[in-house]
Design brief:
The complex is a heterodimer. Helix content of chain A is 0%, strand content 53%. Chain A is built from no helices and eleven strands. In chain A, the strands form two sheets. In chain A, strands 2, 4, 5, 9, 10 and 11 form a six-stranded mixed beta sheet that branches. A five-stranded antiparallel beta sheet of chain A has the order 1-3-8-7-6, with no helix packed on it. Chain B contains no helices and eleven strands. Chain B is mainly β. Chain B starts with a strand and ends with a strand. In chain B, 0% of the residues lie in helices and 52% in strands. Classes of the chains: A mainly beta, B mainly beta. Chains A and B meet through strand 4 and strand 5 of A and strand 5 and strand 10 of B.
Chain lengths: 114, 112
Amino acid sequence: DQQVKQNSPSLRVQEGRISILNCDYTNSMFDYFLWYKKYPAEGPTFLISISSIKDKNEDGRFTVFLNKSAKHLSLHIVPSQPGDSAVYFCAASARNFGNEKLTFGTGTRLTIIP
Amino acid sequence: NAGVTQTPKFQVLKTGQSMTLQCAQDMNHNSMYWYRQDPGMGLRLIYYSASEGTTDKGEVPNGYNVSRLNKREFSLRLESAAPSQTSVYFCASSTGAGQPQHFGDGTRLSIL
């Protein structure tokens, strides 16, 4: 049972435009969400997070939006740059329940076209 | 500024051989984790350790054992390797429950 789903395996976006990566979850106990970026032959790198008490968190070019009623979150990258080409994973945890575990989605490969 | 260091980076084993993957972090983190990443599957938690001296099973623990040797080190052991354990293994650490995890660069393990 995939509790965190990234339904788009890949996404191609022109340099300078907005990239929107989507993630859906099914577990109502999830209260903390994170996005990771992964380059080939490297480990995932933490990008941005959001708590369930918020609906938006922004850090430079990266903004994460959370829609709790729809159990949906999205990562916006504006403007997209060639260095953003990577695999992006969303992850979720039930932090307020003391749960150590992060549940990851299957990833979306973002390619920025020059 | 090493962060999380995994050794080895690559390994090829024969079915039935044993192997220990090593992980060390220098960030004074309490929690450490082992994941495997397979194509189309994302990262799946094998075992984790919330603090020195404690370990707990994750989503896919069968065929693995772990040891939290001290606060810095968390090792993963395959006692009798199987081809289904061919994967990329990542170690991670964090300050605690649900906090952002910092990952090593992975160990690519092939079992023939």
